[in-house]
Amino acid sequence: MSSGDSSDDYGVRLLNPDGSACEHVDFPALLGVEELKGCYGAMLRTRHLDEAATALQRQGELALWIPLRGQEAAQIGSVRAATPTDFIFPSYREHAVAWDRGLPAVEVMRLLRGITHGGWDPAAHNLANYALVLASQTLHAVGYALGLQLDARLDPRYDAQAGAPAGPEPAAVIAYLGDGAMSQGDANEAFVWAASFNAPVVFFCQNNQWAISTPAARQSRVPLAARAAGFGFPGVRVDGNDVVAVHSVTSSALARARAGEGPTLIEAYTYRMGPHTTSDDPTRYQPTGEVDHWRALDPIDRVERALAPVCDAAWFDGQRAEAAAAAARLRTATLALPDPAPDAFFDEVLVTETEEARAQRASFREYRESFQV
Amino acid sequence: MTTTHTPRPSTLLVPEARPAAEPAPASVPLARALGAGLRDAMAADPKVVLLGEDVGRLGGVFRVTDGLQEEFGEARVIDSPLSESGIVGAAIGLAMRGYRPVCEIQFDGFVYPAFDQIVTQLSRLHQRSAGHLRMAVTIRIPYGGGIHAVEHHSESPEAYFAHTPGLRLLTPSTSADAYLLLRQAIACDDPVIFFEPKRRYWERGPLTAPEDPPPPMERARVARPGTDVTLIAYGPTVRTCLDAASAAAADGRSVEVVDLRSLAPLDWPTLADSVRRTGRAVVVHEAVVTAGLGAEIAARLTEECFYHLEAPVGRVGGYHAPYPAARLEQEYLPDLDRVLDAVDRAFRY
Lengths: 373, 349
Hints:
Chain A: One of its GO terms (molecular function) is magnesium ion binding. The complex is a heterodimer of chains A (373) and B (349). Chain A has helices at residues 33-58, 72-79, 95-100, 105-112, 122-125, 136-154, 185-196, 227-231, 243-258, 290-295, 299-307, 313-335, 355-369; strands at 87-89, 158-159, 164-165, 173-178, 201-207, 210-211, 214-215, 235-239, 264-269. Chain A is α/β, with parallel strands linked by helices. Chain A folds into two domains: 33-340, Rossmann fold, CATH 3.40.50; 341-373. In chain B, strand 13 (281-288), helix 10 (293-304) and strand 14 (314-318) form a beta-alpha-beta unit. In chain B, the strands form three sheets. In chain B, strands 3-2-4-5-7-6-12 form a seven-stranded mixed beta sheet, sandwiched between helices. Chain B has a five-stranded mixed beta sheet with strand order 9-11-10-13-14, with helices on both faces. Chain B starts with 27 loop residues before the first strand and ends with a helix. Chains A and B meet through helix 6, helix 7 and helix 13 of A and helix 3, helix 4 and helix 5 of B.
């Protein structure tokens, strides 16, 4: 599967931890220097925003934070393989995906500050709201992909022989999930459906080794990517800390999906360098030395080493300053978020509010007002 | 950014929801009325798609979708894998892409694998997306007993869903309502769980509702007017209550029967109006009485009609035991005698 300095354990690798490039027979590096610099900036910005958010939670300004430290390459590499018309279904740790898709960083804060359970318009960035129930979103992704297929089938220009319309560029879907979600029934049902209908969907599994305290070994006896074979579509493990490899593998899977060749499962082999959430204490379960091992494989350091020969210190300083400024802006914007109206939980329960809901809302307001002298 | 509540035009009335003009037989079985509703909805809107187990080539195990795949093709009448969570989950994705999926869950007892998708996703995505997503998904579920079936094929799980905000629940008891409510459910931008009284699938009635324009789907219907006591029923027990009302009339009692049609939301004005007139009420459903819809209705009517009530609101329904094997189901199902017994008790106060 791999060649050069690639390690089979880590999957497809195009950038070694020391920053040197290597090759893979199936997956060419598609990122040029300018694009790699762009990925570096996005990953660095993510790291800074992530740290700022953790600080906000520690200061009581967020109800919870879900760090993604260590998974920046998996997220930036994959989302940058997608086009704006591809539709993305995140789980709940995909902040870098969301931000890189153009979602203002503070939108994620609204969720974790306790203002909303979601809030953004999925159509604005072709980005679904977060899904907190593990793997629930994988079925939505398959359904959306079936919708893309139906769009084509129902298009008057549909060519039954070619199996494709002479219409606009076909789109595809990415469903993000984690190693824990791979044990869920919904993920496995999604794989069945995607295979049965040859749906244009890429399942992007970030195997960060830990589902809270449950190790990946408790989820699977085989590499997660190997599961795909049983469902009848390709599975690829990629070094999730290698942004170049992640981008290449995801690009290839999306191209397959768009060409009508069906689903792919990508296992991005990575590591959650922080806690599951700010409520978690990984020192209770992570073996000593494991974090140090992965720190040496840090996805941002790796790109920094790769870029060192072509970028000077001033450029790196500029990147760090920009990331720090973004973090400061996020902090200010988060603290300025208004609280929701007290009766906001009545909003949008149904498209047309029922008489009973209207009455309950009125009674709730009346009750609150009864305390105001 | 704050979310604001913006009233939207009602989608509950579908004035065009009339059967196609072709000469309809004077009366059709309820199952065929459902099929006609699906067919006309698909013909009217290319975004309506069906998915479920055996709905295509076979036409559904009850033949409700008979002929639809032939007419509309495999792309729009989708024979799904045997995967209920998948059916509802995929329907959610299709709705996000602008389709109006109609799911069939083959039997009531098979909805539980899809329960998570319905309760944690389908019912909440409109609010989770701050109103940007509309989950125009209809989930058809044949429900209830009386067909001598094996386990999991005779259940009445509606209370689980009535308890969940963000869902609408409908259940027809006549062919006319089967057609009309199904058209309204499919046209509705909210998720609708559509409970079909499977033991009434073969009962016949006119396809067209007498009212013009047809009533909104949230309205209950006075199926038989009366003055002494109100029987509140839905789906399969409406027929039972109408029979009980006829029997009671022979004893000189005037029994009103209200057919709920909508289980969520409940039509409180119609119920309260009836009970204020009669002073007595008995709720009749097949579902387990404990924490069932009857409990909610009894509590609410007690609050709203306290000074009009001559007796506590009675409840007749399933016992707190799993739905029994076929040879005992007639003991378990509320029948005419149990309804009349509850009416008698309402007159003892």
